[in-house]
Each structure stands twice: as C-alpha cells, then as structure tokens.
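Q&A log
Question type: sequence-to-structure
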Amino acid sequence: MSDQDQDGDVRCSAADAVERELAMMFRRARKLSLTVAAEVHPDLDAASYSLLLLVDDAGSLRGMDVAERTGLDKSTVSRQIATLVDLDLLERVPDPDDGRARRIQLSETGRSRLNEVRRRRSESLHDEFANWSTADLREFARLLAKLNNPG
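Response status: OK
Response body:
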C-alpha cells in the first residue's frame, strides 16, 4: 500500500470518527432540546422551543419571516405561533412598518422563562467543561465555528 493510500485510509478513518461523534452530539442535543423545552413550559415541544429561540434572536418577526427562515410552510408556522401565544410565551404586536400586519415577539413570561432556562443551561455547560483547559475550550469553539460557517 502506498503512502498516499495509507493517508487516504487514515483520513477516512478520522472522518468516520467525526461522523460518529457528531451523531452522538446530535442525539444529545435533541434530548437536551426536549428537556429544555419542557423546562420553559411543560406543553412546549422541541420544534416550538426552536421557534421561540429564533424569535428571541430576531427581537420580533412576521409569521412569513419565520417560515422563510425555518423552511417550514406557513400553516405549520401559524399553528406553532398560535400555540406559543396560547402558552403566553409569545405575543402579537403591530408591525410598525405595515399597519395591517402583525409581528410576534417574546412575551414577558416567555422572556423570563427563557432567561431562567438559559441561566441554568449555562451553569450546566460550565460544569461539563470544568475539567477542560481554556486552550481546549478555545480550540473547540474555533472548530465548531469552522463547521458551522463553511467556506
């Protein structure tokens, strides 16, 4: 076997290891999303929790903006928004740019619950990384950023 073939085998093996670890991370992330969603509100599912985070990041959005950003159809987004409004996690407000339209934003309850869950999640992550060196944390953050921002 040539050096080039061995390098290719080593690279494939490394890529396979990355794939396995990413799969494990995604499973853990899905489980965490369900847990965190339930901490925000017992009737909240992971998809609606994700929508809540999107609205929080944006400040306020129109329903069609949510559909465009998530790739979901408008009826699905409309149902999720209605559920989040019913749970008092989101509220509808007038769109300052279009008097006929409405925007959604976090309600006071939604903001309070989301902030509390984020605080607890941050504490948990600090505990998980307690034995990591600062250099390892920086390298991990750098590699995750590289993965999340290809090109």
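Response note: The radius of gyration is 20 Å.
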